[in-house]
Design goal:
homodimer; 377 residues; binds zinc ion
Chain lengths: 377, 377
């Protein structure tokens, strides 16, 4: 982010690198561009969703290999590749679980790769390793059914991109009864009152904010790509959108007293690592200026799909992003130092899921890791 | 049923008395009329649903007492009174469970008494005795959620008036995973291709027939009342409708080879008694002429809401209905013998629910009780 520094002296806050667990699958050779956008937003680890903005999805050995080849030597962030559930691939997906250790069950009927029949989900639950993660974007009827199946099969499940208070309440009720369910909400669902293009979301903004304690993780989600498509924005890579507005939006809410910095760290750093068994990233951190007012450059890709972000200055600038001891971003400048990107495929270093079917870990209030936040002057 | 006997010599089949587990709650002093219609159809036991065709429902001590008073000395069938779940009455309903031992959780938003919030169902599951039955008419989203809650609370649940193959499949899948769920389908959903007034049902007729093995019970259901209302039929008591067409319709299907007599006995006699712990009725039975062709009288109430039933003769006439040794119906004539009706409130003789949360009994194929059917010449 190019930004104008209104305040000459400011405090720096250090955050662990952020994790976006359902990053849009970059099309073609878009890996480098997408992970660079993530780094510029303070994200150092991505779950590469099984689905892209186009018709592509990782459903097979071949398509997973293709994505892994695209990532090798071209990713600035660490990442883990997810695999899409289809009605045809329960056995194949399970066989790939070492390489693509998160199963993504999509009910998004606007994408050609999705699941319609619950019996297919049953087959996946029978085949997929008990200790490997399952993510679903199910909502409404599909959500109730996915939670039912998770309960019947004693499976842990993570619900991504929750958009309604009803869905959140159902997840919370299930969790209170011992189901091991977690969820995330897109940052953009929390600021949808400023997104005119997406229907039905605006009235849910306040109900979602009022249920913050039920939200385990934040994500970037597919809303930026959906909003860009709805607004007819051309010439942008959908997989790059949204990252660089996350911390300005959230820390503006912090400055307004609607959120704490600990809420942000829990939901974007600690919780996703804990839930998905993602490893720590040594010598990896993000320095931000929380109290610095920034304006988003009018020509940035994000300004095209989220024009309202230009209306007033936001709090918080990403000052520096360090990946494994190397500074990749400093005051708006990205430094790749002429070297190949250093991001790693994490599939072989994932810890197995930390929780059994009792879900007790998730029923407890999130605990802050000691020293996750430090403040320098 | 007044009927023309086309065949002078015919075999008589003896069935146990039929059970309609969700009989419409009769309004005012309609108990005698509704139970007489039931007897004329071969039904000797009714679950009196918590809901009537009007706004009335049994939700409290007062309303349960009112229904019980209306039934005492005015019921020709045995019966059990059900209680409606509301958001306000989890504690009150549980306290009434000895007198109204079946909890009815309705999601029918066209009736003023229904449940909207899942948290209310939670409260009922916490309060309602573990061994007492729960019936719900939930469908779609509500059904998935009810099954989820039943799973989380380890409760047995009976789903009434299932109308879509999707809902049946979801119940069957849950059952295959050990959930203790049973269901019924209205006979009229199985013949809805002949009911022009009810939208959306016709395309489900064949899918429902093809899933007969997943259907535990048949019921009369609320379809006759709904069809009569949709067709603007006046001057009928909704609680009397449908009973007398049940056996003619089902045995016409038997004569066409789509069903067996054992299927009928299992789903209308044995299964409801087994599932709800209903007692045997001594010296109580129904004699039918399976091979007799009958025509429904054009002026009967049932001909008003189901005009297509007049188009061709149906197989099967109810020849005789015997309740506790007394013949109440013989060849179309109802005999009350100048005595008060002998039907009993069964609330204190219900066996506790026969099954634990494993639901194994229900996952097994229905077994025919030995001697349930006998044939005389
Ligand atoms: Zn490259
Ligand atoms: Zn589809
Ligand atoms: Zn700076
Ligand atoms: Zn600075
Ligand atoms: Zn009377
Ligand atoms: Zn309502
Ligand atoms: Zn006869
Ligand atoms: Zn005869």
């Amino acid at each position: 982010i190019e930004s104008v520094d209104y305040i000459t002296s400011h405090r720096t806050t250090v955050l662990p690198g952020l994790v976006n667990i359902t990053a849009l699958l970059p099309g073609g050779d878009g890996f480098e561009q997408a992970t660079r956008a993530a780094i510029c937003g303070g994200f150092t680890m991505l779950g590469i969703s099984a689905h892209g903005a186009d018709a592509f999805a990782t459903t097979s050995d071949q398509s997973v290999s293709k994505v892994k080849s695209a990532g090798r030597g071209h990713a600035h962030t660490d990442y883990v590749v997810e695999i899409a559930a289809t009605e045809a691939n329960p056995t194949a997906a399970a066989a790939l679980s070492a390489d693509a250790p998160i199963l993504y069950v999509s009910f998004d009927r606007s994408h050609p790769v999705h699941v319609d029949k619950y019996s297919a989900v049953s087959e996946h639950f029978k085949a997929w390793p008990q200790n490997s993660a399952v993510i679903t974007n199910a909502s409404g009827n599909d959500l109730a059914t996915m939670l039912l199946l998770a309960s019947l099969f004693s499976r842990q499940i993570h619900v991504t991109d929750v958009r309604t208070p009803e869905d959140l309440d159902l997840i919370d009720l299930s969790r209170a009864r011992g189901l091991c369910a977690t969820c995330d909400v897109s940052v953009y669902a929390l600021f949808a009152d400023r997104l005119p293009a997406i229907e039905g979301l605006q009235s849910n903004v306040q109900p979602l904010w009022s249920r913050l304690s039920a939200i385990d993780c934040f994500t970037v989600g597919v809303l930026p790509a959906q909003a860009a498509k709805a607004a007819g924005v051309k010439d942008v890579n959908p997989a790059t959108l949204g990252y660089q507005l996350v911390l300005p939006l959230l820390y503006t809410a912090v400055s307004e007293g609607r959120l704490t910095s600990a809420d942000v760290v829990e939901r974007f750093c600690n919780a996703p690592r804990r839930i998905f068994g993602l490893p720590e990233q040594p010598d990896t951190y993000v320095e931000i200026h929380r109290d610095r007012l920034v304006r988003i450059p009018p020509k940035s890709d994000d300004a095209k799909w989220f024009p309202d972000i230009l209306a007033k200055p936001a709090h918080c600038a990403v000052h520096r992003v360090v990946m494994r001891g190397k500074t990749l971003l400093l005051d708006g400048m990205f430094y790749d130092q002429g070297l190949a990107p250093v991001g790693r495929d994490l599939c072989h270093v994932l810890r197995t899921m930390s929780s059994g079917p009792s879900g007790k870990q998730f029923a407890q209030p999130p605990a802050m890791a000691a020293g996750a936040l430090s403040v320098k002057t």
